[in-house]
From TrEMBL, chain A:
Keywords for the protein's UniProt record, in alphabetical order: ATP-binding, Cell cycle, Cell division, Cell membrane, Membrane, Nucleotide-binding, Plasmid, Transport
PROSITE patterns: ABC_TRANSPORTER_1 (PS00211), ABC_TRANSPORTER_2 (PS50893)
Upper classification of the organism: Bacteria, Pseudomonadati, Pseudomonadota, Alphaproteobacteria, Rhodospirillales
Name of the protein in question: Cell division ATP-binding protein FtsE
Family statement drawn from the similarity comment of this UniProt entry: Belongs to the ABC transporter superfamily.
An annotated GO BP: cell division
Length: 226, 300
């Protein structure tokens, strides 16, 4: 699914923020990504969702070498990746339904299907009464669920979440993580960046641990006690 | 209770609230107004030229003036008959007919008014000549002058050529004005689209990361620009129609019939004017698409 080989990343002429990153995520796997603030979690996720290109090294996604993929083929690859952004990145002028519909409309889905599927998924995340609500009228937890619904509406092969529990209390955080667990059971490869150790330790999943720009892959049993 | 799902599709980019939107619509209205006037001017000149051309091509006019000292010259009627004899014996001339006093009065009416028909006015005699072959106008003029003193030959071809040159220059000027307006319009659209891209950069980047193609983003700008330029263009066209109607009304008041009547313009002229906002709209849409695609090329 994802393979990084000796990947390095620097912004402009600055120092490398990620160094010699090598790992492989098999299809259908579930990983947490941890690390202190500034360790490079967001940068690594950006490399995974193709927002950045590595300064060096090899990134393989869905079996394709990203250095060789043509720019015109990138949108189709990106549509196979669902991303839950740290700040949700909802479009303020669009309703919850229209926000969730974005990936479907980009993929050219029929409008009747768009409305049907988005209504269904918003009900699934408990927002069936807020289809027409603007993000500004929703609470932080509700916005987060809209962001998650948008990330998974397209049934992505890879789901990436950047601190999805960062703005909610532990109760809602647990519910969100169980939501990701359900998606994982449906076959989606999941990577969740979080610094909420208490929540992470409740799940038996391997961990990608970033420390000073370097990555350590911890298996599930070790991850629990990391 | 849950509200019914949205059926009306909002644009992914909130472009309608941009400050450049009103600017672009107003500017399009002004540009279409000016372009429509320039085009109408060119069409009027073209119509006028073709009317004069079809009426005067292949023709000559002989004018026989009343002479001040009529005692020493043949009467006007005799000189007219002499001129007709010369004309009818000249190779290349098909017909030569004398215009009645009424016809001459109507020709002079734009300058002299209704008094042109007054029989007390010393009116010249005019002979309308149609040719069916080449005529040596210099020799004919000389023969006419000797046969009928006071006769002058007016070769239409000379000033028709001047008229055609003038019309050609007017056409070029009008096309130049329309091209300049189009160029300014393209620059305005580029400015508006770049502003929109800068204002909504975070949204564009988000759509890009979610898998939107460049064409998908460009379509959002195209739809926005088409809506604005169509509304602005129709406003400009209505204003131009009002102005042209006013000019037509003023020209009708001259009783001169020198200018063509705008109300009786051929269908294709009306269609050409109506197409100005559509052309502006198409140009704006293409410019918006090109600008967005060029700008997004820099994204990874």
């Amino acid at each position: 699914m994802i393979r990084f080989e000796n990947v390095g990343l620097r912004y402009g002429t600055g120092p490398e923020v990620l160094r010699d990153i090598s790992f492989t995520l098999p299809p259908g796997s579930f990983h947490f990504m941890t690390g202190a603030s500034g360790a490079g979690k967001s940068s690594l996720l950006k490399l995974m969702y193709l927002a950045l290109r590595p300064s060096r090294g090899l990134v393989t996604l869905f079996g394709k070498d990203m250095a060789r993929v043509k720019r015109t083929d990138l949108p189709a690859l990106r549509r196979q990746i669902g991303v839950v952004f740290q700040d949700f990145a909802l479009l303020d002028h669009l309703s919850a339904l229209d926000n969730v519909a974005l990936p479907l409309r980009m993929g050219g889905a029929r409008e009747s299907d768009v409305v049907e599927h988005c209504t269904e998924i918003l009900r699934w995340v408990g927002l069936g009464n807020h289809l027409n609500s603007l993000p500004s009228t929703l609470s932080g937890g509700q916005q987060q669920r809209v962001a998650i619904a948008r990330a998974v509406i397209n049934r992505p092969r890879l789901l990436l979440a950047d601190e999805p529990t960062g703005n909610v209390d532990d109760g809602i955080g647990m519910r969100l993580l169980y939501l990701f667990e359900e998606l994982h059971k449906l076959g989606t490869t999941v990577v969740i960046a979080s610094h909420n150790e208490a929540l992470i330790r409740r799940f038996e999943h391997p961990r990608l641990m970033l420390e000073n720009g370097r990555l350590h892959v911890l298996p599930a049993h070790a991850s629990r006690w990391a | 209770m849950a509200l019914p799902p949205l059926t009306r599709r909002n644009s992914d980019l909130p472009l309608a609230k941009d400050p450049t939107s009103r600017f672009l619509m107003g500017l399009t209205a002004l540009m279409v107004y000016l372009a429509a006037l320039a085009l109408a001017g060119a069409l009027l000149v073209s119509d006028m030229t073709s009317r004069w051309d079809s009426g005067l091509a292949g023709g000559l006019t002989v004018q026989i003036m009343p002479l001040p000292d009529s005692a020493q010259a043949d009467p006007l009627e005799e000189r007219t008959e002499a001129a007709l004899t010369v004309l009818r014996s000249t190779p290349g001339i098909a017909t030569a007919s004398v215009l009645s006093s009424g016809d001459v009065g109507r020709l002079l009416e734009p300058w002299l008014g209704k008094e042109a028909a007054d029989p007390l006015l010393p009116m010249p005699r005019l002979i309308d000549v149609m040719t069916n072959g080449p005529v040596d106008t210099a020799a004919l003029s000389s023969r006419l002058t000797s046969a009928a003193p006071g006769a002058t030959l007016d070769d239409h071809a000379v000033w028709l050529a001047d008229l055609r040159r003038f019309a050609g220059a007017m056409h070029l000027a009008a096309l130049g004005i329309v091209a300049l307006i189009g160029g300014a319009g393209v620059m305005a659209v580029i400015f508006a689209v770049r502003s929109g891209l800068a204002i909504h950069r975070h949204v564009v980047e988000l759509l890009h990361l979610m898998g939107a193609t460049d064409r998908y983003v460009a379509r959002q700008f195209e739809s926005h620009v088409i809506g604005l330029t169509l509304r602005g263009g129709l406003t400009g066209l209505l204003l131009a129609a009002g102005t042209l109607g006013g000019i037509g009304h003023a020209a009708a008041g001259l009783h001169a019939s020198l200018l063509p009547d705008l109300a009786t313009s051929p269908w294709w002229a009306v269609a050409a004017l109506a197409a100005v906002p559509l052309a502006a709209c198409l140009l704006a849409a293409l410019t918006a698409r090109w600008t967005v695609l060029r700008t997004l090329e820099s994204m990874p």
